Amino acid sequence: MCGMPSGESTRASVHEPELVEPTREDKVAKAGSELIGGPLGRRALLGTSWWTPVRVIALVAIGMFTLGLVQKAPCYNGAWFFGAGSQYTHACYSDIPHLYQGRGFADGLVPYFDRLPGDMQYLEYPVLTGVFMEVASWLTPGSGSIQDQEQWYWMVNAGMLMVCAAVIAVCVTRTHARRPWDGLLVALAPAFALTATINWDLLAVALTAAAMLMWSRSRPLAFGVLLGLATAAKLYPVLLLGPLLVLCWRAGRWREFGKALGGAVVAWAVVNGPVMFFAFDGWSKFYTFSQERGVDFGSFWLIIAQNSSDPLSTETVNTLATLLMLLCCAGVAALALTAPRRPRFAQLVFLVVAAFILTNKVYSPQYVLWLVPLAALARPKWRDFLIWQACEVAYFLGIWMYLAYTTSGDAHKGLPADGYHWAIALHLLGTLYLCVMIVRDILMPDRDPVRRSGDDDPSGGVLNGAEDAFVFGPAARPARDAVRLDGPQVEWGKADAPGGSL
């Protein structure tokens, strides 16, 4: 086991779980490891040196984040301020410096309470993200030209977001106890580094990753509190409650779900309540803006709109997108309740968040950050992960080249609309591909890389190894010779099946 003598293996298994070696079970990981000297050895795997997986992956994540900052250098040195087109041709655009002045931070306006000049009226971000932006403005020197201040504001935010990136990598590394090296998928994800400082999404992603870590440790209340805070920073984390509800239903774990739901509601209310009460118009701007916003970049709705002589109205798109999302959620719920084996938590979360991204009327390039840690937990397979990342990097370049084309006037420098539509299609197909692979893993558990290594649901917390209490379809009437894949060979549904939480 892991290249150890049998005696060492026996002693190690008593005190700590046997770690899965990706360079031995994954052909792409093995080939890639040749760049740094070949597959990992026993000391690296067991953490007997200072270079434990958590420390290595955190440092790699910081290193990749730094490379992402370097990639933004052309914009930092002038493209944000003196060349609208060059920030697109260099693919280094960021909302952060533009919103320093555009959302009143340069003038000391208080988010949600002070009205902004122009049509926006109030800050269009959730409360906790607004707090993050405001704290960064407090740390930004107020001297020098507005360009100097915007540069400082971006750097301050970049430093704070780097902490979020490290938290994400560490949480993913620690969520699957036997598979810490899967965290390298997050740390080395090229789309993660390229989009990390476009906006403030990493705050919500970090809180969501921490919440999933708490759930994997069977701490539902802490999970709920962190998820509520994440939802106070971005809307998408609330989607995690749907898969959790279905899985807890199937496992009969209603008490734990109640704790998670209660913690999330209270945490969200504590953050939002005061602003909602004292500045309702400013607080509600995020929600009204999301509804009123028209079809925008990155969605298949944009392809339809730009190829139609009579585009759908915003209200119609809102209705259709909502119906599509509900249909996808119903499909995921049906899959969870009828699968031959209860799906893993991370698998269902990825499918639901991906469905939201695929059906939404806008896909900003930084939304890929939502999926990167979920993909590492749901489908830790380097080949599939890199195929998806290649599609996302292509989209990242495509949107900036399209914006360069639209801002270059008669010069037409960049990617025309038809080319941009292909970039959107590539992003959609890449995400769908990963969804298909995850659905296959659910329907054929023996193909799941996590379960093939002997685990049940390491991110499932109280669900890990729990018996089913409610199942539909063939899963409720298994063949008499059906066996569990994660423990002793027993018949499905028997009382003596492995249970309990890890």
Task: Tell me what the structure shows.
This protein is mainly alpha-helical and 502 residues long. It has one domain (54-462). It has 25 helices and no strands. It has helices at residues 6-15, 22-25, 27-33, 42-46, 53-71, 73-82, 86-89, 95-102, 127-138, 146-175, 183-187, 190-195, 201-216, 220-233, 241-251, 254-278, 280-283, 285-292, 300-306, 314-338, 345-359, 368-378, 382-407, 417-443, 449-452. Helix 13 (201-216) packs antiparallel against helix 14, helix 13 (201-216) runs parallel beside helix 22 and helix 15 packs antiparallel against helix 21 (345-359). It is globular and about 65 Å long. The protein starts with 5 loop residues before the first helix and ends in a 50-residue tail after the last helix.
| Fraction of residues in β-strands | under 5%
Kindly state the mean pLDDT as a whole number? 87
Head-to-tail CA distance between termini: 22 Å
> What radius of gyration results from the CA coordinates?
24 Å
Could you describe the largest sheet, including whether it forms a barrel?
none
Helix/strand class: mainly alpha
Number of domains: 1
Number of helices: 25
Q: Percent helix among the residues?
A: 55-70%
Q: Which residues sit in consecutive blocks of at least 5 with pLDDT less than 50?
A: 1-15, 42-47, 479-502
Would you report the number of β strands?
A: 0
Shape: globular
Q: What is the string of SSEs from the N terminus onward?
A: HHHHHHHHHHHHHHHHHHHHHHHHH
